[in-house]
Amino acid sequence: MTAPSGFADLTPLARAREQKAWYWYDWANSAYVTTIATVLFAPYLTSVAEQAACGFVTDEDKGLKCEANLHVLGLAVSPGSLVFYVITLATIVSALLLPVVGAAADRSARKKAIMAGFAWAGSIAAGLMFFVTGSDWQLGVVLLLVANICLGSSLVVYDAILCEIALPDERDRVSSRGWALGYLGGGLLLAVNLAVVTLHDSLGIDTGLAVRLSMLSAAVWWAAFTVIPYRGIRNRQPTAVEREPGGLVRQSFGQLAATLRDMRNYPMTLTFLLAYLFYNDGIQTVIASASVYGDKQLGFDTSVLIATILLVQFVAFFGALLFGRLAASRGSRRVILGGLVMWMLVVTVGYFIPEKNLPLFLALAVGIGLVLGGTQALSRSFFSQLIPRGREAEYFSLYQACERGTSWLGTLVFGLVHQWTDSYRPAIFALVVFFVVGGLLLHRVDPRRGIAEAGNEVPRVV
């Protein structure tokens, strides 16, 4: 676009304003991801499930081992594995739903409204978690399913918008800053929740109510800050979309079928997606299981777990910015590969941590923080370079099917290994396989070839 003679070209300024508004959805949804999905709801739902199965009521009971199982559709389910099976189910549903959401978003001129609608629906489900009490684990299961699916749906559209508001050479920087702001926002709210949970006696409430109030605050945060990107991002007409017959739903299914058939023409894109499926499953399972592992296996109480995840959040803020700077000179693929090596070290060290060894647990948290935001931010921006024009949301729907909080193979393996061994240690160590396989597949991706196959502009550094 060329500015008229005598006028300044305001396009870069307008793009920068949209990028700043776009960052805020990372800030908004991080409250749910951090406070609810990562820290509080997994151990809370596990305790509710244990109460339903074994009748645990008092704090003294929490130190006892629950030998009974829940019975779901005639199947015996360990209370300690329930939350991981729920996440697995959410991802299976997402695998069917999100590609249709993505295909519909690519054909719509109202992407920001679709993103915000799913965000607000998810925040309502998260807010209703306040009412999960006693032994009512069924309500918790339903709300976790709805919130995770809505989160994934909103992120499909959010990630696709990155391709509209950032040039190829800007995407690593923009994606990394979004992730960094998300970790900062999630960390700040988590700090407040740490105070509420730790000082619950001074506030005149019990631990359960403190946890439920913290989850409610995360839901309100998610809903409120979604207003900023909703107001600050500009809607755009869809581009390069092949028209399918019928209404929007039929068009979406038709376009999805065409894309799945056409993916064999983009082998580098497909190889990266397979790599991401594996290594992100490992990352997401570490995140989802961290609080349960620290609680049930290492014996730390809720306040210690929140403080540790808080440390991860603030370290991840700097880690995401650091990885973005490294990618500017070394290329995102190389930096991601280095991060996967660090993830292998993380799960290996996690296996050997003795119970109640807080210094080593905190050191492990610092290691997780350094690689957590960086690998995720650069994966998002790198994948955006490999997507054919006009199919951004559709491809990101496949990407989001294995994104944070919706991984399926990792949580399934973690839950099964725990149920077979009755220990979380071999379950956490089993995740090293996901990083090894993902790294080997990523090593096979040729960035320049993949970007050229997708018909996109090759960045200065790849």
Labels describing this entry:
single chain; 462 residues; mainly alpha; Growth Hormone, Chain: A; two-stranded antiparallel ribbon; 2 strands
Can you summarize this structure?
The chain has 462 residues and is mainly alpha-helical. It contains 17 helices and two strands. A two-stranded antiparallel sheet has the order 1-2.
Describe this structure in words.
- There is one protein chain.
- This protein has 462 residues and is mainly α.
- The protein has one domain (18-453): Up-down Bundle (Growth Hormone, Chain: A).
- The chain has helices at residues 11-54, 82-106, 111-128, 137-165, 171-198, 207-225, 227-232, 248-262, 267-297, 302-330, 332-352, 358-385, 392-400, 409-421, 425-429, 432-443, 447-453, and strands at residues 70-72, 75-77.
- It has a two-stranded antiparallel sheet with strand order 1-2.
- A hairpin with a 2-residue loop joins β1 (70-72) and β2 (75-77).
- It is globular.
- The two termini are 25 Å apart.
- Residues 1-9 have low confidence and may be disordered.
Strand percentage, roughly? under 5%
Helix content: over 70%
Spatial order of the strands forming the largest sheet: 1-2
Based on helices, strands and strand pairing, what is the structural class?
A: mainly alpha
CATH topology group:
Growth Hormone, Chain: A
CATH H-level homologous superfamily name: MFS general substrate transporter like domains
Strands, count: 2
Low-confidence runs (pLDDT<50, min 5 residues)?
A: 1-9
Mean pLDDT: 85
Span of the ends, CA to CA? 25 Å
Number of individual domains: 1
Q: What is the highest CATH level, the class?
A: Mainly Alpha
Give the ordered list of helices and strands.
HEEHHHHHHHHHHHHHHHH
Largest sheet: 2 strands, antiparallel
Specify Rg, calculated over alpha carbons: 22 Å
Overall geometric form? globular
Give me the oligomer status: single chain
Contiguous helical run count: 17
CATH architecture field: Up-down Bundle
Keywords: Membrane, Transmembrane, Transmembrane helix, Transport
Domain Major facilitator superfamily (MFS) profile: 268-462
Pfam family, one: ATG22
Main location: membrane
